[in-house]
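User: I'm writing a short methods note and want a consistent example. For TRAP-type C4-dicarboxylate transport system substrate-binding protein, I'll paste the sequence; you return only the structure tokens, no commentary, since I'll be parsing the reply automatically.
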Amino acid sequence: MNLRHILIATAAAVAFASTASAEILRFSSFEPPVAHVTKNILTPWAAKVNAASDGELDIQIFPGGTLGRNPAQQLQLVEDGVADIAWVIPGYTPGRFDQGTIGGLPFLVPNGTVGSKAMWSLYEQGLLTGDYEKFKLIGVMTSSPNAVASTVEVRTPADMKGQNFRAPGPTMLSAIDALGAVPVGGITGPGMAEAMSRGLISGTFTQFSAIETFRVGETINYYLDMPLGATPMLIVMNQAKYDSLSEKAKAAIDQFSGKVFSEDFSKSFDQDVAEARERVLAANDISVIEPDDALTQQWKDALSLSTTEWIAGHENGQVIYDAFVMAIDEAAAAN
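Assistant:
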């Protein structure tokens, strides 16, 4: 064996030993592997952390429900140690991370970037407690605002009366109830299209990224473009697993987590929503309703009760609401 072959063999052996000794972390995503968040946000994040750890970490993405198919299972996967990290939609587990449901109030979050900055501000101010303190938080975000995607024409609040409607969280379900519609919970993103095609619901509060990912564009006929509440989102890690890691491994995770991750996630999410909108509308026959100021005011008046009820139903509700509004204004001004 010549010197070149010896060097190659030695390098391969070192690489293998490094990989073999790395701490494997399982990262669960309910999305398909080619969906935007999993492919363009979560997977690159894992690669950056792995590189920064100098071989101490091997974060592996398990997409498409490999560890658990139901989006509502993701938090439990982390708590049970089946997954070490997961992308979690708190609205699928009502009662958990309840303070963050403020992001679902109508007419507050103008886009995911501003909403995520405001949500992280609440966390930094110590206003997100309880469940938020039980996990290592990789990111605290909101989606772009959800609007009304439906099989029936919904133009005014009165058009909602008596219709079965789905939303991705309790705050938006309360808004649906305030409009005189029938709120339908328990339907996760992957189940939206089937629920509408079977006539179980007339529509849902959602945004174009979800419409594209879960093939909802093939079932809806109308889209009322109005910011009726964002979807709070989290990337959580099992705290005990994080605590067990070396200082170098922890530092690698911390370097790309928290405020940095939340802002990077939301900017990419907003861009994808804008691009998905173009693709979905080009591929499907969907009537987009753009409300004027008078129609917008009708919806604000009809939904004002949902904000009043949220504040009254949460300890320190007014304090959290005021802080969120101020953080949104500051983020929007800086954006």
